């Protein structure tokens, strides 16, 4: 009997091993190579100088409502007009809400849905404390362009304009109409810029075939063990929910405290919320970890290919990386706590603010139900903060002509890196175009190693000059591909 049991166990192990190996072989199959894009040489020094010029325009909101500085935007628009004369001669320019810009490059085929390339003109504030180069000096030095907006996201603005100007100089005219959507208040939600622009396109009956805005770049050191760069295309954005937790208590003198104060009740609730996060969803990340797996060592490929078996171990490994952890669950962040005014007084109320970033598939209702279930205390009242919530955006297709052509252009320009879809952790102006476009993608055409990651709103924001030159090449190639009747690029076995 024992021998028979051992034989069964051995057979199961053999079958399991064969199955695991087979799945790993299929999973690790390499993406086919593409031939490099061939285009005109880019004057990197000139591009860097143009970026530096717009960095000097301090397009910082004057207040939390996103009120623009008229003079800063006037200077920026003047620079664009002077630097890119053909763009302003050949394309139609519309000014939206006084500051946002919508350019229309009319195609020869009116029956084709247009495409849109996006960037935003505004930047977050910065003072010079701790900066190697003052944030608005716009200096080019040591092979870098320094200053606020070089990464977020005036680089993309200049990349689009440089590419269009170069193509116009070559006499290029697209078959498909190409739009440039350049918002002015993305950092404060885009409510007066791209939201109005999106509504305008909807009123005109425009349906966009595809959109590319800021987003994932080409990241090296994406996760522990992953070798080489991986290009990440954002196919969705996480939702947003801010919840107020409040507790009403009995005020009084601290010399005779009740068994539980409002602060104590709230503190217990917050501890439970933080220690019981929303569940992870590994299977929702399959397209992402498939792309990462191609650049991963064998042991990770085995795990990625066989989540059914190694899911718990993979989950523990991914949770160690803050970005990967945020990519596979709705996150919880305790951000504000208020309660009490005197050390000898029991407060009548305590309140806290908790911010959630919703993974697509989780709804606001799901989060509120989860929090109530975790707290298990009717004395704690939950209320979404007005104006501080929105559901996760729809997930754009990670296959089809729009996505596939974008992926192929990335691989043409950046030496054939693995490409994977992912969910954006933050928000972009793309949210305002969901009613007029199904294929919305978020990609910043820049190789980002660890030395540049996280500089977007930080000190010493900067970008390599050569990185800007390659960004121009990317946009020129994308305009040629997306501007064609059929967005098709043949792949080859190099």
Structural class: alpha+beta
Individual helix count: 14
Distance between the termini: 57 Å
Give the helix proportion (percent range). 25-40%
- Which spans have pLDDT < 50 for at least 5 consecutive residues? none
Give the tally of structural domains: 2
**Cα shape:** globular
Largest sheet: 8 strands, mixed
Main CATH class of the largest domain = Alpha Beta
CATH superfamily of the largest domain, by name, is Zn peptidases
Number of DSSP-assigned strands: 17
The radius of gyration computed from the alpha-carbon positions, rounded to a whole number of angstroms, is 26 Å
Give the name of the CATH architecture of the largest domain.
3-Layer(aba) Sandwich
CATH third-level topology of the largest domain: Aminopeptidase
Beta strand %: 15-25%
Average pLDDT number: 91
Layout of secondary structure:
Layout: H1 2-27, H2 44-55, H3 70-83, H4 85-90, E1 92-96, E2 100-105, E3 115-120, E4 140-141, E5 144-146, H5 154-169, E6 178-183, H6 194-203, E7 210-219, E8 230-237, E9 239-248, E10 252-253, H7 262-275, H8 286-294, H9 298-305, H10 307-319, H11 322-327, E11 331-339, E12 345-346, E13 349-358, H12 364-375, E14 380-390, H13 401-413, E15 419-424, E16 440-448, E17 462-464, H14 465-482
Parallel strand pairs: 3-6, 3-7, 7-16, 8-15
Antiparallel strand pairs: 1-2, 2-6, 4-5, 5-17, 7-8, 9-13, 9-14, 10-12, 11-13
Helix pairs in contact: 1-9, 2-5, 2-14, 5-14, 8-9, 9-10, 13-14
Name the features:
8-stranded mixed beta sheet, 494 residues, 2 domains, Alpha-Beta Plaits, Aminopeptidase, alpha+beta, 36% helix
